[in-house]
Specification:
Length: 305
């Protein structure tokens, strides 16, 4: 049978974590799941909780890994997936600690992987059912990042912010999460870069009744910085090459405008006539382009080794 590990990142979830663990254990005993070819274990990453979360987890028959301080959901997910690989999991699935995702949807999300239809599977709230009125700012944020992920990956994604995600052994062995925030977007970009197959299933999403959400007005800025970092490391020639070509184009435009200004005695801003500005722009752009090319060659050599 396939070994499935449901991992739960938890930060100050004393009011709910025990109930989540009990519910998953009761819904997925080995006697119930073995006919579908798998058995399920639970791993909890205590991400530096300052309440009774760790004590409650230790009372349960689950594997626990604890961070000494709060490092963020991306860091907790990274730790969990590495531990799942160490524990020789065939499939791992991330589940929220706040009961917003329904444990009933675990099997639905892992089945496409068990059937070898995909390498990663996302539980889509927007294809399924959301059992409360999502705040407007969160709805807009979800739609924006979903739109962005559809442009940055080779996938057709309906919910890029979901907390219910499953991965097969092939991807667990090679995944990369660089930043400590927004694991869904990081994993989508990384999996797309590595040629992993993608699939979605509709899931149910409930309103949070305990604890406090980590999503706030600062969150989008952390996400965008992480996405830029991922793109830079994943495809430096695309980032730096584009910046270099843009800079070279601007320096050519600068030369044309300077020539027109001098030959036709036109009034132009001072920087248009500044030869030092044009030279600096040209040098920086060339360096940027070749830096991207060199970084891309290093990545290609590293991947072959």
């Amino acid at each position: 049978m396939k070994k499935v590990i449901a991992f739960i990142p938890a930060y100050n979830e004393e009011d709910c974590i025990g109930k989540v663990i009990n519910t998953v254990q009761s819904k997925y005993p080995k006697s119930k799941t073995e006919h579908n070819g798998y058995f399920l274990e639970i791993l909890v990453v205590n991400d530096g909780s300052t309440d009774r979360t760790e004590q409650i987890i230790k009372q349960k028959k689950v594997t626990i890994v604890s961070h000494s301080m709060n490092r963020g959901l991306g860091a907790a997910t990274r730790t969990a997936m590495k531990k799942c690989y160490d524990l020789d999991a065939d499939i791992c699935i991330k589940l929220d600690a706040d009961f917003q995702h329904d444990p009933d949807d675990i099997e639905k999300t892992i089945m496409p992987i068990l059937n070898n239809e995909t390498d990663i599977c996302w539980g889509s709230r927007f294809k399924g059912k959301i059992n409360y009125k999502m705040p407007l700012e969160r709805y807009i944020g979800n739609k924006f990042f979903t739109f962005l992920m559809n442009r940055l990956t080779n996938y057709k994604i309906s919910d890029a912010q979901t907390g219910l995600m499953a991965f097969n052994k092939t991807y667990i062995a090679k995944f990369e999460i660089i930043g400590n925030y927004n694991p869904p977007q990081q994993l989508l970009i990384d999996a797309s870069k590595k040629g992993m197959r993608y699939y979605e299933v509709p899931v149910v999403f409930h309103k949070r009744t305990t604890g406090k959400s980590f999503v706030n007005f600062k969150y989008p800025f952390f996400v965008l910085v992480n996405i830029l970092r991922i793109l830079t490391m994943a495809n430096p020639i695309k980032v730096f090459g584009t910046l270099g070509i843009l800079g070279i184009s601007l320096s050519v435009l600068h030369s044309v405008l300077s020539h027109l200004s001098k030959s036709n005695n036109l009034e132009m801003p001072a920087f248009i006539l500044d030869e030092t500005f044009r030279l600096a722009l040209w040098i920086i752009s060339i360096q940027c382009f070749f830096f991207g090319l060199l970084a891309d060659l290093v990545i290609q050599i590293k991947s072959k080794n």
